[in-house]
Design goal:
CATH class of the largest domain: Alpha Beta
CATH superfamily of the largest domain: Bira Bifunctional Protein, Domain 2
Strand content: 25-35%
Distance between the termini: 17 Å
CATH architecture of the largest domain: 2-Layer Sandwich
Order of helices and strands: EHEEHEEEHEHHHEEEHEEEHHEHEHEEH
Helix content: 25-40%
CATH topology of the largest domain: BirA Bifunctional Protein, domain 2
Shape: elongated
Radius of gyration: 22 Å
Largest sheet: 8 strands, mixed
Number of domains: 3
Length: about 375
Amino acid sequence: MSKTINKVERTDEIAKYYGFKKTDVPSFFKLGDIFLDSSQKKNILEKHKNNYPKKGHNISMLYNNQAILTNKKNRGKSSTKNFNFDILGVSDSIAEATIIHTAITSLKEEGYKNPFVNINSLGDKHSLANFRKSLFDFYKSRIDDLHPKCRNFNKKNIFNLLSCNHKECQELKKDAPRPIYFLSNDSQQHLKKTLEYLESLNIIYNIDDLLMESDNCFSNIIFEIKHKAPSPKKEIILGRGGRYDELARNILRKRNLPAVGVSLEFPSKKSLIIEKSLSNKSDFYFIQFGPSAKQKSLPIIEMLRRANLKINQDLHIDKFGEQIDKAREMKVRYILILGQKEADDGTLIIKDLKEASQKTVKLTMALNYIKQLK
C-alpha cells in the first residue's frame, strides 16, 4: 500500500522536526516601519495567554509562518516570507541555541548560503539598570556634542541614541559604555554557554557590543541574523531576536517565565515544497545528559534530520530518567543515548526497547547503523 503524503513547506518541516508547534496569530495593523518589529512578541504572548497554565512548569515551543504586523502600505499580497520561532519556559541557553539553529537552518534551506549572527548581551534587569545609568551619565556629560535634535533625552529613551543616524551621535557612540561591561556572573555564563553552542553548530557569529533594541522588549541575549549580498556588497538583515523574560512575565502573569524567540522576514523565493508522510510516528527518541552531551546534541539531531530520520527529543530536559519516561510514553522502539562518556568518546548508545538490548557505535558510523533499523 502506498503511503499517504502531504506537501509541506521546507521551513514548516524544520520547525516541526525540532519540536515547534504551529500557532496562528492574527495580523495587527501598525503604522510606520514594521520590519522585524519586536512588538510581534507581545502579540504572540497575548495570543498564547489563555493557553498557558498559571501553575506548574510548562514548556511551549511555538512557530507561525504569517506576517503578524501589517500596515496600510502592504495590505495586498506580501512579497516576503515571515516566520516566528519562540520557546517559553526554558531558562537554559539551549533555548537560544535551538532558536538560532532552527532559524539559520531554515534560511539555508531557503537559499541563503552563509547567514551569520551578530550577538550581544544586555544582562539581567540589574545589569541593564547599571548600564542605563552609566549611559545616561555619559551622554549627559557630553550633551553639547550631540546633534541638536537629540539633546532632549531622558533615561527612558537613552538607548535610542545608540541607533541614531546623525553624524554627531554616531561619532559619540564610539566612546559610549557597552552593556557587556556590566554583566553579572550569571549573565556572563549565559552568554558564554550560548556562544559555545553556536561554535558547536559551526554558526558564524560576531559579538556586537552595541547591538540594542529601542523598544526595550529584549533583555539578556539579543541578536540579529544577516547575510552578505554578493551584489551590491552589503549586509542584509533577515532576522532579529533575543530573550524577553520580563515581557513574558508581565503579559502571562507568571512570576518566573523565561522566553526567547526570533522573527524572520526575507524576500520570497520559489516555495520549497517537500513530500512528507502524514504519519507523525517516530521509532527514535534522542536522550542527552551532561553539559558536553547537550552541547553536541544539536549537530547530531541535524545530521539525522538531513538523513530524513524522524526522531523525538526534549533537549530542555536534563534528567536522564525524565527523558526515558518521555520515550516510553511515546512508545518508541529505539532510544539514542548521548551521555558524558559518549560525548568524550565520540560514540552513541542505541537501545532497542523491544528486544531489551543495546549497542554502542561510533558517531561516524551511527547514521548508517540507524538507517538499517528503519
